[in-house]
User: Fold these one by one.
Assistant:
Number 1:
Amino acid sequence: MKRTLYLILIIPILCFFSCEEEQSKQFHPSHFFDLSDFDTLTSPKDNFYQYVNGNWLNKEPIPKDRGTWGNYSALRLKNDKRIKSLLESTLQKGNYGKNSNTDKALSFFNEGMNTSKIEKLKADPVRPILREIIAIENFFDLQKVITQLHTKGIHPFFKPTIFQDSYRNNKQSLFLELSGISIHNTVFYALQDSNAITMRMEYVDHIKQMFQLLGYTQEQAFTIASSAYAVEEDIAEQYNISIRNHTNEKYYNLKSLPELTDICQSLVWKQYNKEIGIQTDTVIVTNLTYFSSIDAIILKNGISKVKNYLLWRVLHHAAPYLSNEFVTEDFRYFGKKRDGLLEQPERWKAVLKATNKAVGFAVGELYIAKYFPPEAKIKVKKMIDNILLTAEEHIQNIEWMNSKTKESALQKLNSLTIKIGYPDKFPSYSTLKLGKSYYENVILSNQWLFQKKIDAFNSGSNTKKWIITPQTVNAYYHTLYNEFVVTAGILQPPFFHYQADDAVNYGAIGAVIAHEITHGFDNIGRRYNAEGNVQNWWTSKDYFAFKERTKKLIHQFDRYEPLPGININGNLTLNENIADLSGLAMAYHALEQTQGANVNVTKIDGFTPQQRFFISWATLWRSKTRVEVLRQKLMTETHPPGEYRVNGPLSNFTPFYEAFDVHEHDGMWRKEEDRVQIW
């Protein structure tokens, strides 16, 4: 994923209580671990992940409508069920104001669930946009349509994004990024193995079938499909060429509009900015090589083929929001063929996902009022403070970093902004006007959200807003804001329980918190200072020492082989592996400080607090993934699979050896000189 913020991705629910249930049931610490999940035939010294999760892996099926399953996905499903019930009960009660946030959330969700109306409309809601594309006659028409599509959340060729400027952090800038292909793994378009070739042929057939559903003849549909795919393949080819030497430093290319015209002449950029409504004479081009190829792609294919490509971009975007025949065909390829799913998800799940995207903070307002106890926020704040103190000690005690660099690192740590649970003030959706169909509402909400960003940019507003909703099961570190955010959605079992023993909480949510904080000092975060600006605050000697340690970590993960012949990419996953390794260490040492000199050695379920910490860590990352999805993730995902997120860091962490008496010749053993320690 693009590295301006870090989102942790993860995995069954061991126990889960709503606030009402938590208050009515007596909590017991042993609820956190189901001992029947353990594989006691495997020694914790040989494969700790398998020892803690082996029986769970054997008995827990991946739901037929999912590509991966584990603690994160299970908790997200639980949250979604809660929110669905909350929306339905709120609608039934009717105690909300017209045009309120609640009204907007309910209106959007209900329109998406109105299947009789959607089936009656079929593809009618998308036809006006398709007609605009068909009417294109020249390059001026082409620019106008592309611009309109961008404001609607459809992004052929590239995507305009308004984001914090990493070199001018007192302002936001307009970024132009790669977009415009349906398979986000650009290597898919180039692989020559039989599986990839078959998948590409089936993809073209899928496009053809979608246009036949729209009313085109088989011959017409095949013509559109072939040319649409050809343009996508050209985009992917040029992007693959460009990224071979595309380092993070080359992601930022500040250009004036005349300079941008020299790079790409297919659009009149001053007019483009005027039509999307943004007031700026400069843009950030994220990949110069790719953008310089757009002209050639358009000229090579000609307006006729580019129009077909645009028709496909729109129909592909619209398909999930149209009648069932479009939804089913969309799932047939992207769900069954690409991801290996066995069943189409229930409709309410997709509609709720769209609702959260469109009016997510309105949904979040309802969620917080019902499901987030104030006690949770208080205890998490205390944990974060303890982890920050531990992080400070870790930095002060690093032997490979000199005092000047340490001073800058501590300044960055002490400047970190912390946000817990939900924003202090929820945004208002009162100016969002909804339409007469589900798809129209999707387009209108996309336009509204984009316009809000444009307005903030034009006014010079630089508010550090929440970028994910509070009901989202996640946490992130924002590089350019130097801030850490943990949502209410993740602050519940199995990640956190405000009545649980410290060992469990520090091994789960504590490790997540420390993981995210560490992102400020990983191989990418280390390039930014306390204010979130790009600055080299390292001496050459310190950077070399850091680099040598990360090389060892890269080499360690390069050797892991989750699928036959497909290894983890240690360089691709480096920033997450650094955060896992150092986050584990910081959370563990924070637990030790919390317990003090009189360490509580009382066992629960036969395990010491230290052992429970590591067991909690191992359950945190447990997951199962379909082969089709795993193959894609190993090529594109910055997080390694769960087993390696558990065993990889633990094999580098000496306190784990002590807790489970690991010795040479045990499977988890690594020579002391090979154990990596960074932060």
Number 2:
Amino acid sequence: MKIKFKIWQKIIIFILGAIVVVFTSIFIFISQSSRKIIYTNALDYSNALAKQNAYQIESWLNNDMVIARTLSAAFLEYKALPFDKWQGLIRNMYSRVYAENPQLDAFWDSWELSNLDPKWDKPYGRHFYIIYKDNNVLKTKAELRSLTGDPVTYGGMKAKGFESIAEPYISVLQHGKMMTSLASPIIENGKFIGLIGLDLVLSRFQELVSSIKPYPNSYAFLISNKGIFVSHPDTSFFKKNINDKLPELVKQEKFMEKIQRSEEFNFTYKNKNGETLYYTMAPIVIGKTKTPWSLGIVVPKNEVMAEANSNYNLNFLAGIIGLLVLVIVLFIFTNYLTGPINKMTKLLQEVATGKVDKTMNLNIRTGDEIEVMADALSASIVGINNKTEFARLIGTGNLDVDLTLLSDEDTLGKSLIDMRDSLIKAREEENKRKAEEEKVKWANSGLTLFAELLRQNNDNQSKLGDEIIKNLVWYLNAIQGGLFIINDKSQHEEYELIAAFAFDRKRILHKTFAKGEGLVGTCAAEKDIINLIEIPQEYIEITSGLGGANPNALLLVPLIVEEEVLGVIELTSFNRFKDYEIDLVKKLAQNIASTLHSVNVNSRTSELLEKSQEQAEMMAAQEEEMRQNMEELQSTQEEASRKTFELEGLVNALNASAYLMEYDTKGYVLSVNDSYQAVLGIPRDKIIGSHHSQDLKLADNQMISYEQFWSELRRGNIKKQTSKFTINGMDHKFLETYTPIYNHHGEVSKILKIAVDITNA
């Protein structure tokens, strides 16, 4: 028999039992893990503290090294000055740097004698200068050193040729204080010529290192590249070498090799007293030197574990108290939880039977997931009510109703909306189909109507145009229209308005447009429709063929037969022309063009027949008249030949006795006769194309008269003037007559100048 439990019983039995088991397991795991984490964090803290303070010491030393490096670069620039002068500048610079950097004890520079004295040919020997503090008083010293050979320390710096830091040493000048020196070489063209150095008292590092104490019995120490303790809390280690004080540690951990390789490392080490110590070492890299120092922190392991054990005891006590509180809260929560669940269970049972109405609602405000569940159930009931009403309205044919989805995952709501959208789409497609059928019916009716109009009026162009444009305006609900037909009788290709209709009445207008002129001419030239919308108020007055109204749409369609534009239909409307209306007009334009072409052909045939009859009658009369004219023409030709011969003689005489030159209307030479070219002594190709004003120097008032002279010639006035000029050193005087020459259109096409030499007259 299966035992049934209520929710509160299941919570007490299963959850409380699980909590006790899980809580105990977690407590044991967390306690063990926390001890390990505390220990690890303590070591990480020590590592971070070592790196942080190593970086501080490194930044101090690097800042001082920058000073040495900057001075070496600066002194290299001063080297071009005389030795005594740039030595004075160096001393002044040392004093200023001293004032800004009180942590520095001494500045010194060493210059190779082979660089200072060209006669010094030995690879050793140097000039040494130092400025130092003695009881806070600046003192200086200058001397020659290494005259018999370089000492080991200086020789090593010289051979390396890069920045260096000296191993800590006891300073005589500072009365036994531990110091170090930073040195930066002076290199010129790859050659070592000197060294700039700074002396530092290491007492400020001792103060910093002594302050590093992450745990009560922990301590820090600073060690040089060769293993000398720069600082250590145990005075027996201070100034000593680690190889002498801790030889086992150095050998076991390869201590000095790691320091000299600038490694960051840590390890545990058991000392002679059996105490386990944690060592963490952080490198200190100084400038471009290759002798790094290192900062170490030593932490006793038992101090770290003491904190972890204390934390374990506190966690155990807190766990017991927490478990008791959890049991009490669990009992209270169980009663709080089951009440709202019972209400929701009752409501769900009613929904399961199909009972859903607007009165079914839950008002549970627990502020947790139960409240969310209750609100979700209430929302579901509201959603079911809305969907029921939605389906009912759709069933009545109301497809405009909308439904608010409960969420993006509301499958039922989406299905109902899809059903509504499908019904709407079906209705729209039905309406669209009906609209298309109406358009086709409308277009077919229009084609039938205009086919009858074209058939009835195919013998009268004027009446045909009136009927076409009137019925087009009516059928398209336009406001006005016009029909332009090409005028064959015009000298230029023009389109003349033969029919206009507007506002239910025929309009009498007379308008013509050349091909390419205005919208009508443009439509004819491009052989394509023009459909304008949103026309400005004054636009139609300027470019349209009808004028008067201010339409919102303008449609022009060419009437084309065999690539020939016979005319243009122009329609205006307050409404935009629809695509199917434009298609109808395009189809009608083809039929209208064909009919107009037939009308024109018939009309021309009739005219030709009438003209042929008239011409037959005239032929007989003209034949006699032609015979008489031939006789007169023969005598005229004889007279013309005689006058031509006389004219040629006159021209030859004129060429022989005068100088002739022809200009275009702008004053450029077109031709010159041989006599004039010979007198001028200029090649003909240089005269042709030159301007009348060439080589003339005219004042402003003369230029005005000159322009007036040519302006009167272009108007057809004959002008005379006397000109004086020098040719090949001889003065000449000419009487010049300028005569305008007209073309067959009666326009002045060129100017003939006849010049007569009157030099000796």
Number 3:
Amino acid sequence: MIQRKRRAPRSIASFCRLVTASVASAAPPGGIGVTALALLATLALPAALSAQDAPGGPGAIPTWTKASKDGVGTSVTPQSKVWFTLEGGILTEVYYPRVDQADVKSLEFVVSDGTHVWIESRDMRHAIERIDDHALLFRQISTGPAGRFSITKTYATDPRTNTLLVDVTFSGPPGDALYVLYHPALKNSGYGDTGSTRDGALVASKEDVASALVASGSFTESSSGFQDVNDGYTDLLVHHRITWKYTKADSGNVVQVARIAQPRHFTLALGFGATPEAALTSARSSLGRGFAAVRADYAHGWATYLKGLRTVAAPYEKEFQLAAMVVRAHEDKTYPGAIVASLSIPWGYSVQSNEPNAVGYHLVWARDLYEAATSLMVAGDSATARRSLHWLLDVQQKSDGSFPQNSWLDGKPHWTSQQMDEQSYPLILAWQLGVTDHDTWEKHLRPEAEYVMAHGPATQQERWEEVGGYSPSTIAAEIAGLVCASAIARSNGAADDAQRYLATADDWASHVETWMVTKTGHLGAGLGPGGYYMRIDNNQNPDDGYVLDVHNGGGKWDERDVVDQGFLELVRLGIRPADNPVVERSLKVIDRTIRVETPNGPDFRRYNHDGYGETYFGGPWQGEGVGRLWPIFAGERGEYEVALGADPTPYLQAMLHFANDGGMIPEQVWDRAKPTYGDFTFGQGTGSATPLVWSMAQFMRLAVDASEKRIVEQPTVVARHFLGTGGG
């Protein structure tokens, strides 16, 4: 972008110092000339800058925030199209009007005593509390040094309109001033926003999206500036109060600041709309209702939702209900059924937001959506699961019957690789939900099945989106998908199709071991004959020693020596019994290769040599790193133990304890005791993505399976065909 080439001074104060030094170096002996002094005085006077547009745009290159969210929330109602996230004691990304569009980077507070300032995200201690087990209600508490002050914030979106309310209590010395710093980033980008003060509100806009921030006790003064040039952060750090009172900052990386008139107890309303006027109307409407009324309405909606769900064992019920709400909260309201992978951008603080293409995980993967839908289905929320299936078929599915690697909510593909498990999961989900009518069969399920027949069993990418070939987890999904397609075809009178699909499923199932089990791999030493499952094979010859590039900076390795736990999908989906000798032998390889015992319980890496994770010293992943532990694998192993008739408790407990203080289960957890500058804790979340919908969904499924002592989401038609038994 041309804008990025513009070089603006970091702040007016630094600019003044620069001009002073330049003039002084050129001045004659005896001092600086009168004209130069007058110029400097003008630049330094805040009054001279009042009622002006902020200069120096567009400001610093913007980024997103940390992905390790402590809480997320939204109303259950379709009328309120606002989602919020919390991290590190402050409000982070807020989404509107769709769950794939972030519009806020952050909102936080600053305390000043006139001599010192304390910025909430930087200078205070933080805690988070869940204040209602039956709603996505969170309270953040930020505390100043030596307990000098505290800021307590509770969040709720208004179920009736597009507003987020924040109830705030400030406790500190009477002379301390409280400021709010609001950093919009409209339409998935931190550039191009215009901020201003209008009718006592901080208003930001870009194209057809606007936000408006108002306070119940009003603002006494405010300003809109450009980040690192003349924004509120810089002004307060330099002057300890607002001195740069700009009425408008036009088209840039805008930060807005305001002083709270009555800081002891007040409510902030952050409204959104297609225009500034609409955003203001929304904010003031919610503010007029009052926080207590909005909170009660918000909580009632979630409590009503939970009443429709089943229960699980008491130790897991609280987290189970939270997980169900979190998964459900990731569903969009313009495109019902579309559930994004996470309301986060992995390592977002290192991801530039100068253009609206750094989307993180707020996209839809058919695989992740299947995981979410099956978790809700077994929990008792089949209605949302059906919406997800219909979204997959009506919105995301392409004309040839296939599904993109991932997509925006309107179905537009983002990444474009082919992943054959994603081509198969909707078939399984349709059978599980009983959506097998003739119209759905002809328009959607038959084209999908034909695509799997024509393009399987090899895949361009397996479930970790990195390499191609013959993957146990992918082929398990394909086989199960074709068996389900066969049953659906038969119910629709398509006997020939049913026979073809089942014959192909049987053929692929008969070759699983010959295609993907190595008998010469070095990791099987001491385990006897029979071999073990590889992560992936490039060519149906698992013993040829092909050199596999695992990508993400993980290096190149003999494919026989790269393993993952994906073969357990053969058990979960009912294709192989849990006591299959190759499965049992492969688990021994897994346990001595990628299993790690953490203080919170056992967990596993995606595969050995994985490069998707923080760097060795804990820095953000930016193309290469070290793959850490994933809670979903504790869940997958737990489901295997259920299938085996063993006790899944160690894995269920591990998943429970991997959750952070807000109950969010992460994508990855730190894998070693050695500290890093990233300050990660062994067995707790990293900077990748928290919460991950798949993690929350996997916990739900395992909790249900443990209670039922069976794999509830296992497609019965598959288990009966291959094992002679039914799973549910």
